[in-house]
Amino acid sequence: MTNTIREIADTDFILAAGTNTTESHPIISIQVKKAVRKGAVLAVIDPRKTEVAGLAKYHLRIKSGTDIALFNGLANVIIEEGIWNENFVKERTEEFEAFRETVARYTPERVSEITGVPADVIREVARGYAKAKNSTILYTMGITQHICGTHNVFSIANLAMLTGHIGKPSSGVNPLRGQNNVQGACDMGALPNVFTGYQPVTVEENRVRFAAAWGVKDLPAKPGLTVGEMMDGAGEGRIRGMYIMGENPALSDPDANHVVHALEKLDFLVVQDIFLTETAQLADVVLPAASFAEKDGTFSNTERRVQRVRKAVEPVGDARADWEIICLVAAAMGYPMSYGSPEEIMKEIAAVTPSYCGISYERLEKGGLQWPCPAPGHPGTGFLHAGKFSRGLGRFHPVEHVPPDELPDEEYPLILNTGRRLYHYHTGTMTLRTGALEVAYPEEYLEINCADAGKLGICDGDRVKVSSRRGGVEVAVRVTEMVTPGLVFASFHYPEVAINRLTNPARDPIAKIPEFKVCAVKIEKVS
Amino acid sequence: MENVTLTIDGREVTVPKGSTVLEAAQKAGIFIPTLCHDPELSSPGACRICVVEIAGMRNLPASCVTEATSGMVVYTDSSAVIEARKTILELLLANHPEDCLTCAKNGECRLQDYAYYYGVWAGNFAGERHVYPVETDNPFIVRDMNKCIMCGKCIRMCAEVQGNNIVDFAYRGFNTKVAPAMDTSLGRSDCVFCGNCVAVCPVGALTEKAMLGKGRRWEMKKVRTTCPYCGTGCTFDLNVKDGKVVGVTSTDGEVNGRALCVKGRFGYGFIHHPDRLKKPLIRKDGKLVEASWSEAIKLVAEKLGAVKEKHGPDAVAVLSSARCTNEENYLMNKLARAVIGTNNIDHCARL
């Protein structure tokens, strides 16, 4: 997030795109509701009628995968009506003319045809967003999980720069991140192209510095594979050994049948987890790890706040903290790695990571710190890009609408969208074993619109087989107005309804994110 | 900002203009009991337990809704104040079960604390009592409306913090009770079970179901930590007894205040679930069997080393985890790059 979560409450206009905030980020939704109670205008872009859409003044129920057209359309209106921030564009950005030319083609009428959102609504939302004192954009995977995910984000950034709604409190571009420490995992270099703090592996100076810090001769220069590419590599025999810590790709990744086959082909698979997950069941070695309650450390949240995780109880059985296990593996592979505590590891992180330089356990005892925190006395950074963007001038990226990779046809006439439910989390490994959450919400259902249910002769509670070109699952249906005709929805929380057997592994060429939000499916009633 | 100076129990106190008498007293470290007041919520001034005596005022005003003014002279423990508070407590106890022996909130109950502090016994007023069935039809919260003192904090928490307006006062007079629409149960209402009402209930009317019978409140060691679910980063206290996590309770988090969601507050049962992996497993003859740590680690190092040796470091791939700590992800990045020698490291950021 460019901003702090609590700043949302003080914003005047919220544009929430592809975020089921009340279910996926309940505590952030509290700030959204607070803003609305204080008079902020909320516009929600989502094909589903989510709870947060119910709170909105404008619900833009776009056709799946037409976000770029919509954002370009909003920019078109803002430029056409002369309500863009000329000073901001002049002083803080570049490449505006190319952007202007592109969005000139996205008139509200044309965008309305592509997205299904009425032209007058596009105009009203554009005016509201541009003219409000503070406007903020919230988004999640509804924006990013498309083959054009990166371009979707560009189109959002374009809009924020066009109006100058960035670089100040309560105004910005705010992706709400899904996992407790997905921000931290990225910050810590658990990505194929960067060391910690997003220092590219392709820059020689970085490699030299890290090699010196780690006491090795040299480090690999070629960016590695993303998770989807790893699975392809395993399937094709290029990847022979895999070490998986705390992930369950057999359920969470697209085209899950393919993922399972790929993992089965490996010469060697080691999985380190707290439960025998669907992925761990395929492993050659399974290492029992400690849960968050059984170890010390830090998580970095979606607003870049680094906070302490504290050990409350001893690990169950012979389980060990993940950091201890990694040290054992490294030592056994001939690289002594010995740390007395996570605090020592954080000292090393701060030494090699400019944005974490000022972060220490001593300071974290007094409260969390938001990076960039470049020096021991630095208070941390609440909102980003004040006065200057990280790269200097903000660059407009003109982007064009592209349809999703797989659209419905005669054989597979419906669009499947996937996501999360309030009561469960990811592949259900934890939430299906709490003694409470799974009691309240014991099984998954497929949302289907009344019109489609009527055509198929399906009633609420009926069991159906939903399948795509890649696989199928059986699931009960819920007939609901949550989804539009032609759209069905299910979560990926339940092993019994492994919906990712159906999803499309087609990826965004830049971020390599799969298109979870759109694939073509058919439904047959199970007798 | 303009300040005002007033006298409380003979002590001069200076506070910003607009502060309440209660806030002024709290600033000076002078005790005033409260039941319906909460600094994060609006103040109805309903329970009257915080009454004080103010020179020149005819009645005893509620300090939580009385603005401190310059020159005001306040007494927080005059005999009139103490008598009023005792009477309020006697009236509350007249319609409250005397089951502190078994009540889950024993030791963390304001009614109990104040009755003890003021030496008030139940039984001074005899009369009708409510006999409501205890509501246990959901897996998260037990509602015992017999213990409710009508402070209304749960109502305001739901409306003003959670923003869901699930409960409100229903009926009138003695029959007034806190209820969801149509006086149904929480389980049948639109409640999302964030449990934020439980976090502010000053008595035993709202309790965490899974914590019942798991230990007295004073036996719990509270360990402040960060929630393991979504990316919001809420802070909460793990309640630990005899080496086991037996509950989650709110604390004052930088991100979330006292608010949590259903997963954060009630989703901790996995920690001690019998399915937890307790020993390393090695596949032998197609089956995963228990092994020692040294055997398992040796095998991992040998096998990953062999792949590296035979096919090069880029034939190895590492999936790190958005669920693990920064320190662990950092070490995984070091293991992949410095030990194995590959940039094939990623995690589920895109999922």
Folded structure, characterized:
The complex is a heterodimer of chains A (527) and B (351). Chain A is of the alpha/beta class and 527 residues long. Chain A has three domains: 5-176, Dimethylsulfoxide Reductase, domain 2 (3-Layer(aba) Sandwich), CATH 3.40.228.10; 182-370, Rossmann fold (3-Layer(aba) Sandwich), CATH 3.40.50.740; 414-525, Barwin-like endoglucanases (Beta Barrel), CATH 2.40.40.20. Chain A has 20 helices and 21 strands. A six-stranded mixed barrel of chain A has the order 14-18-15-17-16-21. In chain A, strands 3-2-1-5-6 form a five-stranded parallel sheet. A three-stranded parallel sheet of chain A has the order 7-8-9, with no helix packed on it. In chain A, a hairpin with a 4-residue loop joins strand 10 and strand 11. The mean pLDDT of chain A is 97. The two termini of chain B are 50 Å apart. Chain B has helices spanning 21-27, 79-94, 110-118, 153-162, 196-200, 262-266, 293-311, 326-340; strands at residues 3-8, 11-16, 53-54, 73-75, 141-143, 167-170, 177-180, 206-208, 221-226, 235-241, 244-250, 281-284, 287-290, 316-319, 345-346. A four-stranded mixed sheet of chain B has the order 2-1-4-3, with helices on one face. In chain B, strands 9-10-11 form a three-stranded antiparallel sheet. A two-stranded antiparallel sheet of chain B has the order 5-8. The model of chain B has no long low-confidence stretch (mean pLDDT 96). Helices cover 25% and strands 19% of the residues of chain B. Chain B is elongated and about 90 Å long. In chain B, 49% of the residues are buried. Chains A and B meet through helix 2, helix 11, helix 12, helix 13 and strand 7 of A and strand 9, strand 10, helix 6, strand 12 and helix 7 of B. Strand 9 of chain A pairs antiparallel with strand 12 (281-284) of chain B.
